[in-house]
Amino acid sequence: MLIKGIRSFSPENVDAIEFHRPLTLIVGENGAGKTTIIECLKMACTGDLPPNARSGQTFVHDPKVAGETEVKAQIKLRFLTPTARKPVVCVRNLRLVQKASKMEYKALEGLIQTWNEKTDKPEALSHRCADMDKAVPALMGVSKAVLDSVIFVHQDEANWPLSDPSTLKKKFDEIFSATRYTKALEALRKLKLEHNQKSKEMVLMLQTIESHKTHAEKLMASVTEDKHQSQSIEGEIRELEALIVEKEKKVQDLQGKMNRIKEYAIEISNLEARIEVTSNQCSVFATKLQDKLLDESTEQLQSFQLQHMANMRQLEEDKSNLLEQMHSLSLDEEALREQFNRETKQQGKLMAEADAHAKNVKKAQALMRSIKAAHSDLLPDLDSNEESTTEFMASCQRLLASMKSELLNLKEQHRIEEDECQVQVGNIAKQIALLEESKRSKEGSLAECNTRHVEIEKELETLTCSQTNIAELEAREAASRLALVEKKEHLNADDMDSELQTVSSNIEKSRSCISSLRRERESLATLSTHLSRLQFKEEERGLKIEKRNTLLSKHEEELLQLLGLDCYKGIDSIAEKSQATHEILAREKTAHLEQLQSLQQSRGIFQGRLDAACQALSSIEDEIKKCQEALANASKLAQPTGAPEFEQLLALAEEEKRMPQQEVSKLEAMSTVYQTFATEASEHHRCPVCHHQFSGGEESLFCDRVQKLTSTFPDAINEQREKLYKAEQQVSTFKKLKPVWTRLELLTEQELPEKASLVKMLQADVQRIDSSLEAATAESAFVEHKLQQLLKLNDHAVVPITGLTHDISLIDLEIATIKQSCNITDESKSLYEVDKEIEKTEADCFALEKRKEILTKVISAKRSEIFSMENAWRTLQEEIFKARRMQENVLSLQHEREQMIESQDTLQLQVKMVRAQLEPLYHQQNELVAKRAELRESFTQQEECVTAKYHGFQRELETLDGIQQLLAEYTEQGRAEKLARTLKALSRTRELQQDHANSMESCRNAIQDVEAQMSKLQTRKANIDDNLQYRMIQNTLQKFQSEMQELSLQRDTIADAACLEKTAECESKELSLLRDKQQMLKGSLSTYAQQIVSKEKELRAKEYRDVHGRHRTATIELETNKMAVQDLERYYVALDKALLTFHRSRMEEVNKIIRELWQKTYRNQDIDYVQIKADTENAKSGSTRSYNYRVVMRSGDAELDMRGRCSAGQKVLACLIIRLALAEVFCLNCGILALDEPTTNLDPANSQSLAQSLHQLMEQRRNQDSFQLIVITHDEQFAHMIGKREHAETYYRISKDEYQHSKIREQLVDGS
């Protein structure tokens, strides 16, 4: 195996490890990388990561340690297939990438190189990881569970046999592959249950299909009869339809004539109402236009209208022009106002800038005078002109530059002086540092010498060993050796070995007997299928008989009561009686169904008649409701019940119309008279009645009174005219509704009572038939209930009992056939008897083995005693060796103490010399530091003074320069000229605003003149429109009068209305009788048609379609399904028994090996042996068997769970032995076993016994080609115990190099 980039193995590793037979020994210190080999083996074979690998991130070599962002790892494993012994190479590639915030692990595509048998050459195929995880265990000839839990077990998971019950169960189920077979058993059980359920459903389905078949035949006969009846009724309906068509034509002719008469009456009534309304409108307009009637013709008035429109358009155009002119003037005025505001704002801004300019001039002059006063000897004199100011500013800038250069020179001079002082301080400090370092080094060496001197003194005090002690230890060692020799001789002299040999020979004899019995069993195994089938059939026969008796006892009373029996004489009699009862009930059900069908047909006929009568009654009621609604909507009055009331309402409406008509005539006449009185009084100045001459104020008083009276007449006339119009509308409405009144009276008094009595009679007939139907339905339901009860009892009792009886007879025949074919007699040994003899012999063998165990324990106890004596002897030898080593250590420590004393004296003298050199240097350093501080303080004061002067002068110049810039900007922009121009523009704007105000006033006056002209034209146009309307109403009145005369003549040409009404009434009654008869026949036909459709639909339903074929298919399927259930039961029992045998034999082998290994290995006497208990759960019949596992320890007759009760060493030893036993049983094709740190928590005695057990295991299986034991340990002594030359020539040592990378080195075994 080659490992690259896994954990501490370098990605560039080229070392490989070759696993030898029978032993590969790997030794190394803790943390060297030994366990990584087990992890790589497991990863290569199964693809599983080790525990706590953080999804592979800690399994691959860390990129940060390698100094890379990506590390690629590889595991290459080469092995031989167990059968063909062909080489296979498995390569797994891994990758770990370091990203910004996390690491990403990925398993790359792997490779499997196999040997092609056809070409006899190797070939390589790439695989996905999941495919490799399945392919590699298959090539190794062992399951993945065995690889995980037995062969390659990680150190962290080595104690899994003593883990929690759920984990232990999962592990053992996977090792035994129990889950796969359990699933197969469960699938067989479920399949059998499904087929049983399916058989029950098939029986019910078959019975249902039989009943459907019988019912379908009856339905087909009934459909044929219904079709014959329907054809005869259709002939009668066609004859009635011809008569109804002829009658309808006559009634339609009469109804058309009556409708035309009614239409003429309605049109005449409408025209009368229109004429009356139009005449009223004419009188209204005549009164309104009494003094305003125009003499011009209609054409002239229309031309006046056209001229008026042209004049109005001209005036509107003039008005629009004036408005637009006024709008334009308002816009100009608004623009002038805005311009005035802008100029006012600009004037204020310019005046403020002029004031600020004057202030800046004064401020600049004052500032220059102050600067001149401060530096009078360095600056020129000031004048009021611009050139003097410019020269003054230039002189100030030159003075500022000279001050800045002086400041920089001063700082440079100070820096040079300070650097010279700093150099001197630094030189002194370097000398002091060198001396201090030398002093610390020597003091440290002196302290180490003192510490080591103290340690030597303490060690000398503890190491007190003399030659006398060594002599005593040698004497004790010699005595112990002599006692050990005597003990071994005593053990050899004892005869327990001969007894053990005798017991062993008896065990061998028992085993040979067992072998012969097993050969006999194998000879009988050729007939195992027939024997197991025979046994199964006998058990099945007993179960079916028991089930049949249970069903009989459960349903006995119900069967006897329903079938009318006192007691049953046999199964056949019950089946025959049940069949007879079923036929009787089926016949009764058929008779009741026929009776129900005839009653339903009668009810359908009467229901058709009732529906037709109800429909006619509903249409009459709807027509009455419509007439009443029409009357209510039109008249808004209480509904009359007859013609006299209607005549009274019409006369009352005529009377109400006459009263407002008279009032209108009277008021109009009074208005005319009073106007005449007023005119005559004003013309002749006298009373128009008594002709009395007015004097003084009488005339004015008379005229006022007449005027006051006449002013109230128009309102009163209008009010009465409104009443008159409403009364006329009411009279017109009553005249229109007269035919409706007539039809309503006919419907309510004649047609409605006749139809109501017919409906009552038909309802009574339908109720009578319904009561008969209810009684027949109840009888049919009772028969149906008994039939269903019988069917249910057949399903639950009769059919199962009959089927069971039939099955029992078939099983009896089959049992006889099997016995005859196999020549089995009662004296022949059965397979069961042979199994019993084997069990008995095995029990005897087990007792002998138990005796052998007791003898082995006694011998083992004595040998343990010898072993403990050997350990004591070896301990004394080690103590002698340690005493001699201690004596040598005392001499070497005394010599080292003398050397330490000399070194201490030398170092103390050197430390004193260094301290003397340091004192003058520290004094000189302090003086230089103080001098440097004084220089820095004086330099800082000088620089601050010069800097303050420079910055103050600089700020004054910046202020003066800013003011000069503002003054120059004011002059350059010409702000004074702008102020003068703004004042002139402001006065000009005020003049323009005054002119626009005058123009606006003139436009307003012109618009008022145009509106006055338009008002006069509108008044004249209204008068012309009224005259034209008056003339149009007069023409319309003449047109209505001529139309009414024409309609009266046309109405008189038609026949008398009363005669037509009587004839139409007679024809309508005959037509109604024909239609009633037709509806009755249609109702019967509809009933038959519905019955035919429902029956045909029922025949087309799924349950009646191809019912004969489905009946035949269901019978075949039922028999086939029963045979399948029997086969499934047989397979289930055989597989369950095989699994039980396999599990029991494997567990016995495993426990036997565990017991032998424990007794050979464990050196204490508190635990006799350890075994694995497999407790069965869900062992009920028909359920899947499952096992719960636990590890127990036996001490005498006591049996205790080992988990939670054993020590750490016992736990490790028990788990190792269990793994060795599982490997012995389950790894015959793949004899690999890897043990990682097997001596963990074991004492020396148990470690030695474990080594001896492994040695015996290698001796027993060294001839097996596939056996390989891999042991990884850090215990050198344990490695020497098992790593002998007879098992391995070399071993591997794992260590780490200077880069902390794991290295593999192969070394020779020393042969000890």
Describe the structure.
With 1312 residues, the protein is α+β, with helices and mostly antiparallel strands. Helix content is 76%, strand content 8%. The chain contains 22 helices and 14 strands. It has helices at residues 34-46, 63-66, 129-140, 144-151, 165-176, 178-288, 298-374, 386-462, 467-493, 496-525, 528-563, 571-635, 643-684, 698-736, 738-822, 831-973, 975-1053, 1057-1100, 1107-1161, 1208-1226, 1244-1261, 1276-1282; strands at 2-4, 23-28, 70-80, 87-98, 103-107, 110-116, 121-127, 1169-1177, 1186-1195, 1198-1201, 1232-1236, 1268-1273, 1290-1296, 1302-1308. Strands 1, 3, 4, 5, 6 and 7 form a 6-stranded antiparallel sheet that branches. A hairpin with a 4-residue loop joins β4 (87-98) and β5. α6 packs across α17 (975-1053) and α7 crosses α16. The protein is flat, with a radius of gyration of 68 Å. The two termini are 28 Å apart. Residues 636-643 have low confidence and may be disordered.
Task: Quickly list its features.
five-stranded mixed β-sheet, 1312 residues, alpha+beta, six-stranded antiparallel β-sheet, 22 helices, 76% helix
TL;DR of this structure?
76% of the residues lie in helices and 8% in strands. It is an alpha+beta fold and 1312 residues long.
Helix and strand layout, with pairings?
Elements: E1 2-4, E2 23-28, H1 34-46, H2 63-66, E3 70-80, E4 87-98, E5 103-107, E6 110-116, E7 121-127, H3 129-140, H4 144-151, H5 165-176, H6 178-288, H7 298-374, H8 386-462, H9 467-493, H10 496-525, H11 528-563, H12 571-635, H13 643-684, H14 698-736, H15 738-822, H16 831-973, H17 975-1053, H18 1057-1100, H19 1107-1161, E8 1169-1177, E9 1186-1195, E10 1198-1201, H20 1208-1226, E11 1232-1236, H21 1244-1261, E12 1268-1273, H22 1276-1282, E13 1290-1296, E14 1302-1308
Parallel strand pairs: 2-12, 2-13, 11-12
Antiparallel strand pairs: 1-3, 3-4, 4-5, 4-6, 6-7, 8-9, 9-10, 13-14
Helix pairs in contact: 4-20, 6-14, 6-17, 6-18, 6-19, 7-16, 7-17, 8-16, 9-16, 10-16, 11-15, 12-15, 12-18, 13-14, 19-20
